[in-house]
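Shipment paperwork, digital attachment
Item: protein structure file
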Amino acid sequence: MKYTQSAFLLLFGTWLFSACQQTTEENKPERPNIIFIMSDDHAYQAISAYDNSLIETPNIDRIADMGILFTEASVTNSICAPSRATILTGLHSHLNGKVDNHYPFDTTNVTFPQLLQNAGYQTAMFGKLHFGNNPKGFDEFKILPGQGDYYNPAFITKNEGRIQTEGYVTDVITDMTLDWLEKDRKKEDPFLLMYLHKAPHRAWYMAERHMEEFTQKSFPEPETLFDDYSGRTSAAAEAEMNILDHMGWSGDNKVFPEVMDKLGISEIGPDKVRFENEMKRMTDSQRANFMKYYTPINEEFEKAYPAMSEEDKMKWKYQRYMQDYLGTIKAVDENVGRLLDYLEANDLMENTIIVYTSDQGFYLGEHGWYDKRFVYDESFKTPLLVAWPGKTKPGTQSDELVQNLDFAQTFLDAAGVEAPAKMQGESMIPLLTGNEDKWTRDAVYYHYYEYPAEHMVNRHYALVTKDYKLIHYYFVEDEWELIDRKKDPKELKNVYDDPAYAAIRADLHGRLEKLREQYQDSTALSQQYIDRLVDDYENGKAYGVGRERVGKVLERWEK
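Attachment content:
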């Protein structure tokens, strides 16, 4: 009896321990998968969840429908490679060292994919990184060399060396991504997947299947298409990104080189070469399809051009720009849909954080511009849509001041991985999970460095709140700008010297200095980057513009 009772108690105890252990394992929070989708130069104005006046993006919008759309998301430095460096490191440009597109990324930086990989995440990257050929922290990668190509792109891979593909880049990147999910994903491990599109980066070559539709479309013009840049600092007038004056006729707007020659149109930058290089990349079939839709455009343009006024030319170039730019986004949206469909079909939605964003915003004719770089909204703000089914409330919006600086800490927080103390962002998990009262930020910091260089946007740093922007242009010209974001949403008037804003200006100056201290930026650091420019110039180097242009800027600076 004693033996039977003892045996029973032993068996019961063993079962109870096992059951408790099993219950503990079952109740243990499962680390989420993370899918980071990023396009290049995708303006928030070109996502219908933000504004449907230009294009419908039903698949990207699905992410907002499942989760949260941020209306005041922004970047710390509106240019491609520095934005990506900030995303990976959680550090401002002046600390991670990647201040512009030209100087190399410091590979001693610790990135969040490394930390996730060390914590047991399976990691993969497909698409456009833009700097470095061997991204750290990835079990698998296939990345475009540099900017990459729209048609028949090459890829640098971790396991196969450099490979050549045939097809349209947005489709190819998605094929690689889905292939990895289907064949290489380890179902027992959480994963980080970085799915990074080249589109809609310049020079905007759309997929063959969209040419007929988009070359026939016309789009509403922005109110500020003919902005004369009065009422602001000299930086806006000096910038070289006006659609009429600086966008290439052939390389960007697809006017055939022979048509330019016939009409006596001068090249703007590497105009014809850019176009001819793209044509060489296409197969005979792809090129024939391109010619089918762009030849009629050229024929009509050739007839109309002699009678065109400068205003007519601006309007024509704007429409051509929008047709091609938005045409590339159509393929991005379709392919985002392919990925979402796969996740749904394979039960991968439930515990997966899905992010859609861009490396920065972009001008779609506002102020007469294309490109980015300024701290004005169209380039400073970036689309951000995040879904975490079961965690984020579907169909919500947030106007909190989040930045690309925050991604690293957000993902580490979600994975239960401690972020390095030097990271400068703030985890967005409270905003994603309905705990907005735990969000503390009321201002963000911005700093742009690439000048003198392509597009000639002066170096500047800024404090941005929900109500105001205080901007300091500090190289060559020393100018301040104050924008009232509520009263002047199109950012057309500098009120820095307006007596009515004296108290606001003083307060913002104080806040800016505290923010610079918080993020460890300083005049001395800015000077170091200027000194590096001067040293390069003296050693015969210039980036984005010729040495003569750089020399003239430095002469002005010395005076």
